[in-house]
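Allow me, if you will, to draw on your knowledge of protein folds for a short while. Thank you for your consideration; the sequence and its tokens are set out here:
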Amino acid sequence: MCRLLGVVTRAPLPLDTALDGLVGPFTELSLEHRDGWGIAAGQGTGSSPLVVKGIEPAAGTDSWGRTLAGTVTDAALLHLRLASPGLPVVPGNTHPFTVGTVAFAHNGYFTPYDALDELIAPELLAGAAGSTDSERYFLRVLTLLRETGPADALARAAADVRERAAAYASLNCLLLAEDALYAYADEDPESEVSRRRGPDFFRLRYRVDEDRVVIASSGIPQPDDRWTVLPYREVLEIRRADLRVTTTRAAPHSGPAPSTTLAHVNRR
């Protein structure tokens, strides 16, 4: 299992400044989630995100600290990996994954890892860098992005996993796009991991401050009066232009369009 952290700020900042108060607690999680780390940072319009990865634990790794201090951006996602049994700790399996202007990171697993292969555009599948279920999840999202928006693509890809996989623990993920950062929350409460780690392990929570919005996995301090739980099977959208935050409830494949609720408009 893994840990996720995302941030969008009103103006570009060094990541360690944008994540003030969160870097230390999040880095400490890599003492358990020690099978690599990755950071994707948004760049200018039309540009691919800057992606830096390592296959060692983030804690005590110079490149982790240098990347946080030296990367100036208004939007980023961070990932700490705890590899699923049998999956090698190699760069190709290290999150985030990126294609074009989009980056993606996943917390959880599903089996078999190739459950979505028939639903992925052949040229995307041929370009897979590694052997993880997480990358296949991303490639299914990319395939859906050719016909729909990011929130719907995330919800539909997750529904495909639930329909086709033999088992899954969590489908929590972050998607960094040119205009927004998206988060999706989903869990099987009957999975072995959920029963062993407890009901809070796969919770995603977000926090809206005056000049930033953050979304994070459990494991760092998240006092209830400052953090809001992202309900399961909902998509959170944080707009990079104005920090506008909305949540969208996923609809069934054959049901009506998803419902969208304004969660917060962060004004100057």
Summary: Residues 150-164 form the longest helix (15 residues).
